[in-house]
Amino acid sequence: MTANRALSSTSRKSAWIPATFVGAMGLVVAVNVVMVYFATSTFPGLDTDKAYVHGLAYNDTLRRAAASDALGWTASAAVSDGRLTVDVRNAAGSPVPDLALQGAIVRPTTTMMDREITLSADPAHPGRYAAELDLPAGGIWELRLVAGNAPGGTAWQWTDRVIVP
Question: Per the UniProt record, which residue ranges are transmembrane (predicted)?
Answer without folding.
Answer: 15-40
